[in-house]
């Protein structure tokens, strides 16, 4: 059986997107983080930004030896050892339901579970921050129980508030700022994930962990 190979594509003239093969798992993300560390040491690399199962690599100038760079990335991917995920763990108090969780009933309807079951299942894991993206400070979290996976909304909501805790497909996350969303908002937290006056501005980083704690459930 032939092993799956990474996919590498151009992003404009000064960046590449490295897409890891296989499913999005913590092990794969740990290798993506390790690759980012190695890639930043290469000449002319300006920045390496981990994403979900991928790595964006930006160059100071358009790379001249593109094929050689692609071969080097594949070699590094094969050689890197996954970085340990030993970040700090943050407890996030969540108010489930009510005005701050307007789509909890939709998750109930889709899964056939009770509100109490959904809250218990959602708050049980310790989630790992896989990547930052979407908007400043937003964390893509891994580890949600698939029993409460719920499809994204057919019609996105034009504005949800900062701190909205939502489910989209088999993922969950917390909005770091006000904005549109196609996910199902099931609760809210008062924790601030992004603050330009803070150093660093983003509260969490890849490898950190998040635990949702139940402040209360509004029915």
What topology does this entry show?
Blueprint: E1 7-10, E2 15-19, H1 26-39, E3 45-51, E4 54-59, H2 66-79, E5 89-97, H3 104-111, H4 115-123, E6 127-132, E7 139-142, E8 157-160, E9 164-168, E10 171-174, E11 179-181, E12 184-188, E13 209-218
Parallel strand pairs: 5-13
Antiparallel strand pairs: 1-2, 2-4, 3-4, 5-12, 6-7, 6-13, 8-11, 9-10, 9-12
Detailed description of the structure:
The structure is a single chain. The protein has helices at residues 26-39, 66-79, 104-111, 115-123; strands at residues 7-10, 15-19, 45-51, 54-59, 89-97, 127-132, 139-142, 157-160, 164-168, 171-174, 179-181, 184-188, 209-218. With 219 residues, the chain is an alpha+beta fold. It has two domains: 7-79, Gyrase A, domain 2, CATH 3.30.1360; 89-218, Beta Barrel (Cyclophilin), CATH 2.40.100. A hairpin with a 4-residue loop joins strand 1 (7-10) and strand 2. The chain starts with 6 loop residues before the first strand and ends with a strand. The mean pLDDT is 94.
